[in-house]
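haha ok so turns out i had the wrong file open the whole time. this is the CORRECT one, sorry everyone. sequence first:
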Amino acid sequence: MATQAKRDYYEVLSVSRTATEQEIKSSYRKLAMQFHPDRNPGNVEAEEKFKECTEAYGVLIDTEKRQRYDQFGHAGVNGGSGFSGFDPSNFQDFSDIFGDIFSDFFGVNIGGRGGAGRSRAQRGSDARADLNLTFEEAAAGKKTSVKVRSYQVCDTCRGSGAAAGKGPSVCNTCGGRGQVRYQQGFFSIARTCPSCQGSGRVINDPCPKCKGESRIMRERTMEITVPAGVEDGTRIRYQEQGDAGMNGAPAGDLYVVLHVKPHPFFERDGKDLYCSVPISFPQAALGAEIMIPTLEGEHKLRVPEGTQSGATFRVRGKGMAALQGSGKGDLFVRVSVKTPAKVTKRQRELLEELSSSFQFENKPEPRSLFEKVKDIFG
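then structure:
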C-alpha cells in the first residue's frame, strides 16, 4: 500500500520559505495550542496534526536542518519516510516554547533545559504602612517611626513550623524534590507537589504557637527616614521588611505611603512653590519693600514702582528640595492690589484730588495678559 506523501513543512506551519525564526516560533505556538491532545481528548486527527506541526517545527527551527530541507526536501532530514523529524533533544528553545504552552494549560513547568529541581520557596507578601506629614515636614524631611502589622517568623519554632525537638520530614510523595512528574504524551511534566506545596518537606508535629505556619502576625514599630521634598502619595520601599515567607522563604517588601497635608497658602508644582500676596495701591504705584512668607521664615521682596496687579516675582531657592537631584526649587509670588472697602473723609478727598490729576482711559486690556496669569496660577 502506498504511503501518503508528507506535506511541505512550511505549508504545515503556514509560513513562507523566508520566514524568520520568530515567525516560525509564533506560528508553531498557535498550532500546538490548537491541536494539543490535552485540548482534544480522543481526537485522533488533532493528535496527528500536533505531531505533524511539531515535526515541522523541529526541522525549521534548526538552522542546519532547515538548510538541508530547503536543498533536498524531506530526504535531506529524515530519509523521506517515518516520524523522525521530531526530536525534542534538538530543540534548543524547547522549554521556552512548551513552557508557555503548558503554563497556559496547567500552570506547570515542563522538563527542558536545567532539568528538574526543587521548587523555590514562595516569597512573603508585601506589607503597607501609612504616614501623615505636614507640608513643612515633607519639605524638610524627618526621622520618625511607623507601626507595621505583618507576618513575622515564629520565635518559638524559629520558622521551622515544627514543635520543639521535632523537625520537618522529607515528603514521601515527591521524595523531597518539591515536584512530581507526570507523562503527557511525548513530554514529562513537572507539577508542584500537592502534599508539601513545593517545599519538599512535611510537618507531622506542628508548632503549637504558629500551628505549623512557621510565622505569626505581629505589630512592630519601625524607624524610618523621610527624605526632604517628598510629595503626597510618595511610596518608600524597604526591602524584605514585609510579611515573612513560609518555611524560611524571603520576606516581602514594606511600602510606607506618605500623605502630605495641604498648606494654607502655598501651592506646589514639582519643586516650585506659588503663593499670592496682597499689596496696597500706594505700594504698587510708588514701589515698596514687603515681607513675604517662605518655608524658612520671612523674606524681604522689593516691589518696583508701577507694579500692576497680578504681577509675579520669582524668588530663587525658596521652593522645595529636589527629591531626586540637588538644590531647591523657586518661589513665585503673585501680588494683587487690594482696594479698601471703606475710606475716611480725608482719604476720600485725597483720592479725589489724585484721581483728577490722572489722565486715565478705561479701555479693555489685551486678552493675552489674562491668559498669562491663568497659565501661571491655573
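Residues 79-96, 102-120 have pLDDT under 50 and may be disordered.
again sry for the mixup
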